[in-house]
From TrEMBL:
Protein name: Indole-3-glycerol phosphate synthase
Residue ranges of coiled coil: none
Indole-3-glycerol phosphate synthase domain residues: 4-254
Top-level taxon in the UniProt lineage: Bacteria
Organism the protein comes from: Flavobacterium xanthum
PANTHER family membership: INDOLE-3-GLYCEROL-PHOSPHATE SYNTHASE (PTHR22854:SF2), TRYPTOPHAN BIOSYNTHESIS PROTEIN (PTHR22854)
Pfam assignment, any one: IGPS
Keyword annotations: Amino-acid biosynthesis, Aromatic amino acid biosynthesis, Decarboxylase, Lyase, Tryptophan biosynthesis
GO molecular function, one term: phosphoribosylanthranilate isomerase activity
Pathway assignment: Amino-acid biosynthesis; L-tryptophan biosynthesis; L-tryptophan from chorismate: step 4/5
Family named by the database record: Belongs to the TrpC family.
Length: 261
């Protein structure tokens, strides 16, 4: 069993537990439930930088990245830096995140927020909306075509955008459908953790132009972004590169300034 399989087994258990404690009616009563969401895909189409900055304390591949900032400091810093959107990891066991991180981010900034999570159930999409997210992530590697369709259509009904993450051609082919807004190529193989920008380059032509193309993971330089832009990528998800510094907002500011030139 690889790390991804383990995460999904734990996640399914976690969702069952949460459902038994917090009823759907309580999520639907959240102040954010009726709030109009902010479109990341629109922001990316009109941006010169395309940066989606990530709040991430740790990951299975890097035990600890950074625990020394508050969510407010990081997300405010990202917004001031000119990020198009912010990805907030809400998985506790493997990434040290929580839904409270999403809530604090929403209270702090007014740009699109992605709930970065291993979504396996509609309940998690209701949580995303209740805690202030504007879009959700679906990971093709862990979902069937039917599940991607059902979950993405459910998200759209709630006014949330959908970013679908793929890693290879097979995942991309099974996933393309109208209920997605953005398709992200993960440059990290979730099974081996090997990272290469070639994954993005190889899949770029096969992603229809109706979807905003995003490249995720392993992007740590302006050169990498300049290399990916000719392939039609409009969004670049960057987490560790900013989080491992002493000031994530400052790191993002300097990075984004360089792209704009």
């Amino acid at each position: 069993m690889n790390i991804l399989d383990k995460i999904i087994v734990d996640k399914k258990r976690e969702v069952i537990l949460k459902k038994s404690i917090i009823p759907v009616s309580q999520l639907e009563a959240s102040v954010f439930f009726e709030k109009k969401t902010i479109s990341l895909s629109t922001n990316l189409r009109h941006s010169t930088s395309g940066i989606i900055a990530e709040h991430k304390r740790r990951s299975p591949s890097k035990a600890e990245i950074n625990y020394s900032f508050t969510v407010e400091e990081v997300t405010k810093g990202y917004e001031n830096a000119g990020a198009c959107g912010i990805s907030v990891l809400t998985d506790g066991k493997y990434f040290g995140g929580s839904l409270d991180d999403l809530l604090l981010a929403r209270a702090t900034v007014n740009i699109p927020l992605l709930r970065k999570e291993f979504i396996v159930d509609e309940y998690q999409i209701l949580e995303a909306k209740a805690y202030g997210a504007d879009l959700i992530l679906l990971i093709a590697a862990v979902l069937t075509r039917e599940e991607i369709k059902a979950l993405s259509e459910f998200a759209k009904k709630l006014g949330l955008e959908v970013l679908l993450e793929v890693h290879n051609q097979e995942e991309l082919e099974k996933s393309i459908m109208p209920s997605l807004d953005m398709i992200g190529v993960n440059n990290r193989n979730l099974k081996t953790f090997e990272v290469s920008l070639d994954f993005s380059k190889q899949l770029a032509n096969q992603i229809p132009d109706d979807f905003v193309k995003i490249s995720e993971s392993g992007i740590s330089s302006i050169e990498a972004i300049n290399e990916l832009k000719p392939f039609g990528f409009k969004g670049f998800l960057i987490g560790e590169n900013f989080m491992k510094t002493d000031n994530a907002g400052q790191a993002a500011t300097e990075f984004i300034k360089q792209i704009a030139h």
